[in-house]
Amino acid sequence: QLQFVESGGGLVQPGGSLRLSCAASGFTLDNYAVGWFRQAPGKEREGVSCINNSGRSTSYADSVKGRFTISRDNAKNTMYLQMNSLKPEDTAVYYCAARSRYTSGSCYNPRSYPYWGQGTQVTVSS
User: Fold this and answer.
1) How many alpha carbons lie under 13 Å from residue 77 in its C-beta half-sphere?
2) Cα torsion for 9, 10, 15, 16, to the nearest 10°?
3) Lower CB density within 10 Å: C or N end of the chain?
4) pLDDT tens across 103-124, in order?
5) Longest dimension (CA), the chain
6) Is 66 helix (H, G, I), strand (E, B) or coil?
7) Secondary structure letter of residue 119 according to DSSP
């Protein structure tokens, strides 16, 4: 059974940092492109960042560019999101997701991802 276990969320002050982890089990992550999404209360789920199966190609939403870094360690079957200079507007539930490396179309389309983590809450507040 394909599963993700997310960790690393929490409460942080503005300007602080968090590192989210997403460990996959039941499948080999290196055959999949992966992405991070977030959903704030009352808002639609939005793509934050994505990375291809090899890790050589990454993409970031304008709202997080220069502050967030996506990475993956295929040997550990784990993906990460390093979040620096956090702002109150980054507050949301963050989800990791995976899709086949052969899936076409925008990597920010949540409907293109069949596999999802359970979500982890990130709250940025003083």
Assistant:
1) 11
2) -80
3) N
4) 999 999 999 999 999 999 999 9
5) 43
6) coil
7) -
CA dihedral 60, 34, 78, 22 (to 10 degrees): 80
**93-116 burial by CB neighbour count: b if 16+ within 10 A, else e?**
bbbbbbbeeeeeeebbebebbebb
Sequence letter at residue 56: R
Q: Which two tokens stand for residue 89?
A: 């507007």
* CA gap 90, 30 in Å, rounded: 28
Q: Considering only CA atoms, which of 97, 126, 124 is closest in space to residue 10?
A: 124
21-39 pLDDT, tens per residue? 999 998 888 899 999 999 9
Task: Give pLDDT tens digits for 44-94.
Answer: 999 999 999 999 999 999 999 999 999 999 999 999 999 999 999 999 999
Q: How far apart are CA 101 and CA 104, in angstroms?
A: 8
Residue 61, SS3 per DSSP: coil
In 3D, which of 40, 35, 42 has the Cα closest to residue 117? 35
**Amino acid identity at 103:** T
Q: Are 125 and 88 in contact (CB under 8 A)?
A: yes
